[in-house]
Structure formats: structure tokens, C-alpha cells
Write a structure and sequence with these properties.
The chain is an alpha/beta fold. It is built from 12 helices and 15 strands. Helices cover 40% and strands 19% of the residues.
């Protein structure tokens, strides 16, 4: 009688152990399936919505394709620039590529800050710090920014290759854009009026012009010379040998290369990757990755921001054509 009771207990114990094991496995599977995605486990559905300037669009695309293992290549863009985009011939990634169009967008610098403030994007890549207007809007909406430089660029001046003057001092640039210098002869050039092209006031380029060059000086009001896209100066200077315009180094060199244009030296220094990295070029600028300060520290936007500053991220920055920060970690809490 006693032996039979012991024998009957053994199968019950085995069943209990199996049941407990099954429950633990089920819990583990459930926990894995409901765990917050990481950069290593995320899919395109999880990828943070990334907005940005026209000039930062390529690095945003390259980063997403790298992290999601989607092939990409360069395509001619509608505005005449050249930009990387997921390889449309990679049919096995067709569904992912379609979804990625909603994840990597570019509404320009001002539009990107507005998008982040209003919660339509998770992270932005921009070529300047927020303007006073954008900061005022953020304050009204109760939003604060956490801003970190992740690459170096440069504010550059561009002329037609046939222009006789390709080296300017900052005072000469200021003289031209205040209207005090109007003819190339005043700079040692030919007898011809200077066409001083500008950008629209909300553009990143115009804000850089005011911040780094003009300061409190009033720029001349020439409506016909104000261009509303980054390709505007490139297209106009392609034909106008008496024109002067400005852009950023990365856009002019990598997104809109044009053999008819020449970069100008400023204070005797030509913008190159080397003079930008060393800071020798006087108008070297930073490129920023920006998130809202209220993002959770374990969120994907936070992780993606940190990734741009990691060794892997900085290697990709270099590969994209930008000049990396080389371990300089700077944070702006605004």
C-alpha cells in the first residue's frame, strides 16, 4: 500500500515540473515579445521618425539603412540634388522601403524644429541651433530641447568658376551684403555689378549667415535675389559669372556638385575637410542631433541620438562625407 502511494506521487511531481517549466517558458516568450525594442532588435515600424534640414537628409537615410540592414544608393532628387535612398531594386525590402518614407522626412531646418515641438517627429538632424522664434514657440508649448553636435560642416561662399575673385575677407562679405560694395572693381575684379544672392529668412543658410557673418548688420533688401531652396544659389551661379551666394559645404560638395562653381576662401583659407576638422576655416559650423528633453532615457530616440555619437555612428558620419566630431561630446540644453 505504501509503495503504491509513493509510485503514484512520482508522475504527479513530473507533471507539476513540466507545467511549471511550460509556464516559465511562456512568461519568457511573452516578456520577449512585449519588451521595448532596442537599436539591435527594432524593425522599420519601430524606427524613430527623423526630420531634418535638406543638407542632413542623406546622413539620416544612410543611418537608417545601416541600422535596418537595407541597401541604398544615390538617386537624382526632384530639386536637382543627388541623395542616397534605399535601393528601389531591392525587391526583398520593398515593404520596408515603403514604410521608411514615413520615417525619414525633411521639412527643412525651421520645419524640423516645429515638427519636433509639435510631436510629429522623434528626432531631428539640423545644421543650426534653434532661432529665437523657434525657442519662443517651444517655450509656449512647454518643450525643451536636448541638442548635441554630431558632425562638423562649414558655411561657405560660392561663385561661378569664371568669377575673377575667389578670396574674401569677412568685412568684404559684409560690405557686399549691406550694399556698400556693389561692383567687382571695388574688390580688384572686372567692371560688373555684384549679384549678391540671399536665402529666405527661415532657412538654415540664412540663419547661419546672420549668426556667423552679419551679426547686427542689416542685409540689403533685394527681393529678386532671395532664393527659397538650397539649390537656388547653385542653379543661379551656374549661369551668373557675376554672382555670389552661400550654402553649406556638405550640400555644395556632396549633394549638388557642379563643375561650373568654385568655393571661395575666407580670410585666405579654403574650406576643405581638413581645414574644417582643424577649425582653421573661420566659418566652421556644427551639425546637431536634437531630441525633446522629455524623452525617456531608455527610449529609441534617446538611443539613436547616442548612437550618432558612438564610434559606429561617427564612422558612418565620416562615410557620409561629413567631418566627424572625433570624441567631442557637447550638450546644449535649451
Amino acid at each position: 500500500m505504501s509503495r503504491r502511494r509513493k509510485d503514484s506521487v512520482r508522475p504527479r511531481l513530473g507533471i507539476a515540473i513540466l507545467a511549471a517549466t511550460a509556464i516559465l517558458v511562456a512568461i519568457a516568450i511573452y516578456s520577449w515579445s512585449t519588451a521595448e525594442p532596442t537599436l539591435e532588435t527594432m524593425t522599420v515600424d519601430d524606427y524613430p521618425i527623423t526630420d531634418g534640414s535638406s543638407s542632413t537628409h542623406p546622413v539620416g537615410v544612410i543611418a537608417a539603412c545601416h541600422l535596418l540592414d537595407i541597401p541604398y544608393r544615390d538617386y537624382p532628387w526632384g530639386d536637382g540634388s543627388i541623395r542616397p535612398w534605399p535601393d528601389l531594386e531591392a525587391k526583398e525590402h520593398e515593404e520596408e522601403i515603403e514604410k521608411l518614407t514615413e520615417k525619414i522626412v525633411h521639412h527643412g531646418t525651421h520645419g524640423s524644429y516645429v515638427s519636433l515641438i509639435e510631436g510629429f517627429s522623434d528626432l531631428i538632424l539640423v545644421a543650426r541651433l534653434p532661432s529665437d522664434e523657434e525657442l519662443d514657440y517651444a517655450k509656449r508649448e512647454g518643450v525643451e530641447f536636448e541638442i548635441r553636435p554630431f558632425a562638423l560642416d562649414a558655411f561657405v561662399f560660392v561663385v561661378n568658376r569664371n568669377c575673377s575673385i575667389k578670396d574674401f575677407t569677412l568685412d568684404e562679405i559684409r560690405g557686399i551684403y549691406t550694399g556698400n560694395l556693389t561692383n567687382w572693381t571695388e574688390l580688384g575684379g572686372i567692371e560688373a555689378n555684384i549679384t549678391a544672392y540671399q536665402r529666405d529668412d527661415q532657412s538654415g543658410s540664412q540663419q547661419l549667415m546672420r549668426r556667423f557673418v552679419m551679426g547686427d548688420l542689416e542685409m540689403m533688401d533685394m527681393y529678386d535675389w532671395i532664393l527659397t531652396s538650397m539649390m537656388g544659389p547653385i542653379n543661379m551661379l551656374d549661369q551668373d559669372k557675376n554672382g555670389l551666394g552661400y550654402s553649406v559645404y556638405y550640400f555644395e560638395q556632396f549633394m549638388a556638385p557642379n563643375d561650373n562653381l568654385s568655393l571661395c576662401a575666407i580670410e585666405g583659407v579654403l574650406p576643405t575637410a581638413e581645414t574644417i576638422a582643424s577649425g582653421e576655416y573661420p566659418l566652421t559650423t556644427e551639425v546637431y542631433v536634437v531630441i525633446r528633453k522629455d524623452q525617456e532615457s531608455d527610449s529609441l530616440p534617446h538611443a539613436l541620438r547616442d548612437w550618432y555619437l558612438s564610434k559606429e555612428g561617427q564612422d558612418l558620419v565620416r562615410k557620409s562625407g561629413y567631418v566627424p566630431m572625433d570624441d567631442k561630446i557637447i550638450t546644449y540644453d535649451i
